[in-house]
Amino acid sequence: MKIISTVSDLSLFLKTNAKGQSLGFVPTMGALHSGHISLIEKALEQNDLVLCSIFVNPTQFNNSDDLEQYPDRIQEDLKALEKAGCHAVFTPTTAEIYPKDYATKKYDFGLLDKVMEGENRPGHFEGVAGVVSRLFDIVKPQKAYFGEKDFQQLAIIKSMVKQEQLKLEIVACPILREADGLAMSSRNLLLQPKSRIAAARIYKRLLQVKKLAPKQSVAQVKAWVERAFEEDNELNLEYFEIVSQSDLQASSSWSEHKEHIACIACYAGSIRLIDNLFLEIN
Ligand code: PAF
Predict the structure, then answer these.
(1) Are 257 and 223 in contact (CB under 8 A)?
(2) What's residue 282's pLDDT?
(3) Which one is catalytic: 36, 87, 124, 260?
(4) Which residue from 3, 214, 237, 240 could staple onto 254, CB 3.0 to 4.6 Å apart?
(5) Does residue 6 carry a pLDDT above 90?
(6) Neighbour count for residue 250 (Cβ, 10 Å)
(7) CATH code of 211's domain
(8) Is 124 a catalytic residue?
(9) CATH code where residue 10 lies
(10) In this structure, which residue's CA is closest to atom 5 in ligand 1?
(11) Residue 185 beta carbon below 6 angstroms from any ligand 1 atom
(12) Are residues 168 and 28 part of one domain?
């Protein structure tokens, strides 16, 4: 596996190796888990050449403590990528991604970034779209792979691709879960033992939501979730929303459309976790 850390070396590598080949790209911030590896595997199935990037993007952190405590496991990550059969990894410095003269592009996401993560993490999606656009510009892949755990991020990236009229396919990949149901996340590494046990209750509540819908109204289901978190001493709810999968706007009733998604963000100790579950109502 080729390890490349500068834009010029990467351009040279791609010029020599990606000519006439289909190129699949998996952007990450490292601290890789099986969820990331499933993206690499999907990319390997669908492309001749697969490149992963590891870059902890400072512009998408609205909280400096969060950035500081973000796990750094580069040696383990490189081993995992090698084992998975990834062909190359791009590990740029911040100066490579954001050179002095680089102006990050601006986008209009309409209502997509006004809810949930966008509402609770000001500037986050601007940072995500900026770095993904910069990475796409450097790598120029035919396909790029993202996990559905960050469902709103996926919508933002698809909108950015549309606004820029980029010729690439965004491939959404399903959430991978631990044995107790907790969605895999790099942040799980930071959980204290008590919080780690409690965090399994997030998915259990989402499953209960799936059971309650559509017997109970959207408002009743939301109230049930809010109550369950109020009674929980280990988990602090930031938001729980039932929204449309297509535009992420709040669903007021189950009959409004068929494809809803339940989205949650909460704190387990000091660690912020997100999760979601598709709710298809027939
Ligand atoms: O999902 C992530 O790991 C990051 O938000 C991404 C897409 C790599 C951009 O930094």
Answers:
(1) no
(2) 81
(3) 36
(4) 214
(5) yes
(6) 14
(7) 3.30.1300.10
(8) no
(9) 3.40.50.620
(10) 128
(11) no
(12) yes
